[in-house]
Amino acid sequence: xxxxxxxxxxxxxxxxxxxxxxxxxxxxxxxxxxxxxxxxxxxxxxxxxxxxxxxxxxxxxxxxxxxxxxxxxxxxxxxxxxxxxxxxxxxxxxxxxxxxxxxxxxxxxxxxxxxxxxxxxxxxxxxxxxxxxxxxxxxxxxxxxxxxxxxxxxxxxxxxxxxxxxxxxxxxxxxxxxx
Length: 179
Ligand code: AMP
Fold this sequence. Notes:
This protein has 179 residues and is α+β, with helices and mostly antiparallel strands. Helix content is 36%, strand content 16%. The chain has a single domain, classed as HIT-like (HIT family, subunit A), CATH 3.30.428.10. Strands 3-4-5-7-6 form a five-stranded antiparallel beta sheet. A two-stranded antiparallel ribbon has the order 1-2. Bound molecules: adenosine monophosphate. GO terms for molecular function: bis(5'-adenosyl)-triphosphatase activity; nucleotide binding.
């Protein structure tokens, strides 16, 4: 893989386990469950789903299908959540389009509570969240507000790089076995 790959302003190259012409898949800094990965367009200007060009959309959806099949196979998932928080009011915290792929299981199933976890709601009400969003300058202001790395409980770079290498290897195996 050539050149640094960005998720918003973060260089995530060692976390990337798949890259196509316009899209990549990466392991998560704070996965909700093992196998919680993200699908992201390479172009950092793509903040919302509607910002994708037609060619990028096709590539994005093809990548999504490939990786959801792979994650389901590799993590032996019974089902998957495939989720986009499209805009800050919908819970988007990183202003660069990303689709969550989250493996789900019959046992220990927390049902729709997964969305509460995904949302990580920090504001007391919708109105407060909305006024805060507008007060910091809407979409442009939100872009400057990504939480600093030191305020997050994050996995180590080594752990993520190791997982990305393993997933890349397993994906090659999956591609051969499912051909
Ligand atoms: P959302 O709330 O839909 O914007 O989701 C943001 C997702 O990005 C969460 O699952 C975070 O754990 C994940 N995330 C944030 N920063 C990084 C990063 N540097 N590398 C990988 N995942 C990240």
